[in-house]
Amino acid sequence: MGAWTLRRRLVVVVVALVAVVAAAMGTLSTLALRSSLTTQLDEKVVAAHRRTVDGPTFGSAARGGDEVVVPPPPVGGPYRPGQEAGTVTVEQPAGTDPADLAPAQAYTITDDGSSIALDEAQIAQLLALPTGEPVTVTLGGLGSYRALSSTAPSGTTVTALPTASVTSTVTSFVAVEVVVAALALLVAAAAGLVLVRRELRPLDRVVGTANRVARLPLDRGEVVLADRVPARDTDPATEVGQVGAALNKLLGHVELALGARHESESQVRQFVADASHELRTPLASIRGYAELVRRSPDEVPVSALQAMSRVESESERMTALLEDMLLLARLDAGRPLATEPVDLTVLAIDAVTDAHAAGPDHDWRLDLPSEDALEDALVLGDDHRLRQVLANLLSNARLHTPAGTAVTVRVRRSRDQVVLQVADDGPGIPPALRESLFQRFTRGDASRNSATGSTGLGLAIVHAVVTAHAGSITVSSTGNGTTFTVTLPAAPALSRT
Ligand SMILES: Nc1ncnc2c1ncn2[C@@H]1O[C@H](COP(=O)(O)OP(=O)(O)OP(=O)(O)O)[C@@H](O)[C@H]1O
Ligand SMILES: [Mg+2]
């Protein structure tokens, strides 16, 4: 019953209750009917008994010492006037042996009004009954009877009437009851189903609202939670209404909180963007002055020249860092990107050419779609940013793998997507980094950073640019190499083929 719906449970409970009530009522009314019918039958038995006791005795048996001679009973009819079919009568004059009773002293009336004699066993059974009150007795071969026995000085008289009429009335009453109860159960089940459905329909609407909200992307950007449980389902007088009202309250609360969070995030982003932007100008001046000093080597001592060259290189590094931070802040702000057709094949060729120049010790390879399928690698996007994606991935393959490593750039069309892969057979990404690889400032071996100029923003930018293009990036890395897979939607105009 644990996994049953509330609907089913309610209907089953209603039906079970109706069944219990019907069974109780049926049992009680059946018992009452039986007892009242038995009382009526007993009254008839008493009346018939009185008529027998008060009436004449047949045969020549002695009664009270006098020889009473009564005319023989009519052939094929009741021995006594007014005896109805089924009546059983036994008259044993005092002092006689039950086995000697004449047919006229122990008989029953059949349905057609004639009489038949009782056998010895039946007579013995009836004469053994207690006297005074009607009792139930089952006569061998005849069935169940209510019998009244009385003893007088003249002898013993027993009168019995069959209980068949009581039994058949009770049986048909029970049959009617069962049919009525079955109908009542059907009606209760149907009505329960309809009612429960109708009462719980508002709950479905509340669930629908919750599900729609659950499908909304709430993790970034400005979130508008316009969806609410309809007003008619928020009546606090009903339980479902309380749930609906509570959900609305929760949604309002969440919307406010998300709004506040978005607001403060925007402020931080704006600050980072502004700060990066503002720092570019003084940095450019520092670089300029350092260069100026370096170009006039005769006027400054050698140690100062060395220091100036360090200042120059560090300010270049800082400029690159600022550019990265500015780009990330802008991508975070959801600034619209350019959407021009960009051929990833061309980008791949250019990027590999540059990488070859920067890292001649690596083995650079290109794996492009066949000539006639070139147009298949077209995507809509920002040429400059997509070049940056490739440049970052290739610079990683160059900087984080030893000389001699083979790096393959692969471009493929797969249905309505263009897949770009950068695979190397280097030592792989350290396992500790893999979880947070695309997060900002995640980088390996910190000691190398100043030498390589590594900041840990490269893959964060790749991720942000790819996401801004509605694409996705995955990485698989083992001890034998690393593969970055970028998937971008193909330019729609050409995805017809
Ligand atoms: N192809 C690769 N093979 C091995 N390690 C890699 C590879 N690509 C990335 N990594 C590891 O992932 C880290 C994060 O790379 P990411 O490009 O984000 O930062 P970075 O290269 O260290 O710095 P930046 O690119 O900002 O100059 C790297 O420091 C490096 O340890
Ligand atoms: Mg990098």
TrEMBL record:
Histidine kinase domain segment(s): 274-492
Cofactor entry: a divalent metal cation
CDD domains in alphabetical order: HATPase, HisKA
Top-level EC class as recorded in UniProt: transferase
EC number: 2.7.13.3
Keywords: Kinase, Membrane, Phosphoprotein, Transferase, Transmembrane, Transmembrane helix, Two-component regulatory system
PROSITE patterns (alphabetical): HAMP, HIS_KIN
Catalysed reactions, as listed in the record: ATP + protein L-histidine = ADP + protein N-phospho-L-histidine
Compartments reported by the entry: Cell membrane
Keyword Phosphoprotein (UniProt): yes
Transmembrane segment boundaries: 173-196
Protein name: histidine kinase
Organism: Cellulomonas terrae
